[in-house]
Amino acid sequence: MGPGKGKRSQGDITVISTGCGHDCGGRCVLKAYIKDGVVVRVETDDGEEPQLRACLRGRAMRQELYSPDRLKFPMKRVGERGEGKFERISWGEALDTVATRLQQVKKTYGPSAIFYIGYTGTIGYLHNPSTVQRLLNMLGGCTTAWGDSSAGGARSASMATYGTVTTANSRDDLLNSRMIIMWGWNPTTTIHVTTTTYYLRKAKEAGIRIICVDPVFSNSVATFADQWIPVRPGTDTAMLIAMAYVIIKENLQDQGFIDAYTVGFDKYKDYLLGLEDGVPKTPAWAEKITGVPAATIQKLAREYATAKPAALLPGWGPGRTAYGEQYHRAAMTLATMTGNVGVHGGNAAGYDNGYMGITLGSGIPAGSNPAEEGILPPPNGALETRSHAGLHRCRMWDAILGEESGGYHRDIKMLYVVASNPLNQAPNLNKGVRALKKLDFIVVHEQFMTATARFADILLPINTNWERNDITRPWVHGTYFIHVSKLVDSLGESKSDFEICVELARRLGIENYSDKTEGEWLREICKSLYGQPDYDTLKKNGVYRVKSLETYISFEKQVNDPKHYPFPTPSGKIEIYSQLYEGLNNPELPSVPKYIESWEGHSDPLTQNYPLQLITARSKRRAHSCYETIPWLQELERQAIWINPRDASSRGVAEGDEIKVFNERGQMILPVRVTERIMPGVVLINEGAWYLPDEEGIDRGGCPNTLTKDTYSPGGAFPYNTCLVQVERAGGFGIGPK
Ligand SMILES: Nc1nc2c(c(=O)[nH]1)N[C@H]1C(S)=C(S)[C@@H](COP(=O)(O)OP(=O)(O)OC[C@H]3O[C@@H](n4cnc5c(=O)[nH]c(N)nc54)[C@H](O)[C@@H]3O)O[C@H]1N2
Ligand SMILES: Nc1nc2c(c(=O)[nH]1)N[C@H]1C(S)=C(S)[C@@H](COP(=O)(O)OP(=O)(O)OC[C@H]3O[C@@H](n4cnc5c(=O)[nH]c(N)nc54)[C@H](O)[C@@H]3O)O[C@H]1N2
Ligand SMILES: [Mo]
């Protein structure tokens, strides 16, 4: 069946086209087979290429829907906070309690004592955390936090260099490249646009050379790479800078492009040649820092500069580091100086938004937040679009604990968590436990008993994507909208976040929360989308593709007609020297890209105690902490720490052992995977596994945020991949995570 037929019957089976809303990098079509009101089978797009074909996670959603671990009834805490002891209560009692506490806290301490944490557990136009933010804003506002955990570094760097985050070419354009560099980018696992691996496969078949730079021999390296270049985490900037050095020294830059479209190249050149600090940024200089042989760097630089056009695709993982924005700035500069911006087969190497100019429309509006009026934008240079509070999400535990770091002065009493699992996904969880214990009241909207849910005072059960109707769109790229169809009635007494907010609004005396039903909202939302798809047709077909669009090249207009189309930067040009960064006057945000030695990097004196660099990438079995308990997905891979045989044998550690991983912030015990697929000196623990501290506070769930540091880079990045640890044999500590 092609994607064009949303619903049809086969005897007593009905097939409905739907989708999923968890935060992975794709957005796919799922076709559910329903018999006697039960979803009995799930298939995906099998129509024309490029298909919107679902991954393993989407296909396992049936087990999420029917999981015995689902929360199905409202509950209140009966034991100590965090102990996980709850008692079932009625919806009436639950909602009355939440409404009363909201009003009390607002009256006694003011609205900013209510801290709202909504993130990306579900991404629909209607069913998303804005439902709660809207309610709290209408109540008088709340404290929110800023920070893009995905790509804070890329966001900041893209804004500084190009004045926008919309920097990508459409994926089909990869076939016009003569060389592709996947830098810390693993779309085989992370998807990063549903059709990405389809085009990478075609590129490989066409004989286009593909090189991967990653400390890990990832699934993408295994699938696509002609060459794997392992690099020490957090040192990518030095390698990119040395490549620029080689290009200048050998006069391989595109001087015509540089002269016409950029500012500040000479200043960068001074830095590269060492005229500023006496250190020429040679491949030999970079070899010491990165661990990559100078000859490899030199060869890659020559190849990239002469392949033309070549696509440098920088992932966000290397940017999730102490000075992550410098890596992104250096990558964009390399793409620029080789004239690979605004041309077919190139890539601007920026943040990677690629909506091809289509209007995305708007979902349920959160409205403005009265508690944050007048607060200055975050200090990373007006680059944040999500929130204007002075509080970065990496500092939220300190904010709750009353530590005055980060420019906020708020007395937080109550936490409202929706579609987020901060006590799993935010850094430094042991501090998080202390913070959550200090609060007066915590409400959590959840589907499962997560670490955060265990700390709730009132825990409200939320239905899943397949128990409500919604519209969703792809993540950073794309030209289609998907109807996520309701397949079954809500299980147990679960409700959507929206339904809960409607009922809370009534109790709080907020009259204008919603004058529309779910269906009416979705019709209204459809009118705001590109092409204004007819709602009924979208629902019937399951997907609306914007067919008319051709291959899209970011900055094509700026390059073809610079007179009429300046770059949206202060100078109107690509800013290799950034005026925006200059204006911030922060030596850690230099105006030209620079390598800055990292705290908890490979050369930090702390390596004497904690010699291994921990990185925390994505797993194919989860979307962050979602899907963790799903049996089909657990079968895919065991949560484990990856370590190189060299580091394992020097510690007497063997495959399958339980090992202890620790630093000053925490300890965990989990199984070890000894493998050549990770470079020496580096260990990998995939993010998203559940934080399950035992009585001694040792995490048994395999959650790496037990160890990560709760701080942020000067540009706003979450440094989840900057973390030093030590490992040792645990012996006799019992069973770790599944
Ligand atoms: N399966 C799955 N897919 C997802 C998600 C998910 O939870 N599960 N989450 C989605 C979301 S919200 C996001 S933001 C994206 C994130 O997408 P990415 O940031 O691209 O994903 P990661 O797996 O964290 O990192 C990508 C690669 O970077 C490498 N890496 C880490 N540190 C460094 C470094 O210092 N240098 C270099 N060169 N490489 C490094 C890792 O080994 C990994 O192979 O993924 C999306 N896709
Ligand atoms: N160490 C480390 N940590 C990381 C990262 C990393 O690279 N390394 N990456 C970070 C990134 S990029 C991201 S985007 C964040 C994600 O951080 P979060 O958004 O906090 O994490 P999720 O696991 O997606 O949590 C979402 C929760 O929402 C619940 N949920 C799902 N659907 C709904 C719904 O409809 N309503 C409600 N109320 N709840 C729902 C899920 O059960 C889940 O527990 O994690 C960050 N954490
Ligand atoms: Mo993310």
Account of the 3D structure:
- The chain has 738 residues and is α/β, with parallel strands linked by helices.
- Helix 5 packs across helix 14 and helix 9 packs antiparallel against helix 12.
- The chain is globular.
- The structure holds ligand MGD (2 copies) and molybdenum atom (MO).
- The site of one ligand MGD has 34 residues, from helix 6.
- One ligand MGD binds next to helix 16 and strand 14.
Layout: helices, strands, pairs:
Elements: E1 7-10, E2 13-18, E3 30-35, E4 38-44, H1 56-59, H2 61-65, E5 75-77, E6 86-88, H3 91-109, E7 114-118, H4 130-139, H5 152-162, E8 179-183, H6 187-190, H7 196-205, E9 209-213, H8 219-224, E10 227-229, H9 236-249, H10 255-261, E11 262-263, H11 265-273, H12 283-290, H13 294-307, E12 310-314, H14 324-337, H15 396-401, E13 414-418, H16 422-425, H17 429-438, E14 441-446, H18 451-454, E15 458-461, E16 470-472, E17 480-484, H19 497-508, H20 518-528, H21 535-541, E18 543-545, H22 556-560, E19 574-575, H23 579-584, E20 612-615, H24 631-634, E21 641-643, H25 645-649, E22 658-662, E23 667-674, E24 682-685, E25 724-729
Parallel strand pairs: 7-13, 8-9, 8-12, 9-10, 11-19, 13-14, 14-15, 20-24, 21-23
Antiparallel strand pairs: 1-2, 2-3, 3-4, 5-6, 5-15, 16-17, 17-18, 20-25, 21-24, 22-23, 22-25
Spatial extent as radius of gyration? 25 Å
CATH topology of the domain at 156-355 and 552-584: Dimethylsulfoxide Reductase, domain 2
> Uncertain segments of ≥5 residues (pLDDT<50)?
1-5, 732-736
Silhouette = globular
Mean pLDDT: 94
Structural class: alpha/beta
The appropriate CATH architecture of the domain at 156-355 and 552-584 is 3-Layer(aba) Sandwich
CATH class division of the domain at 156-355 and 552-584: Alpha Beta
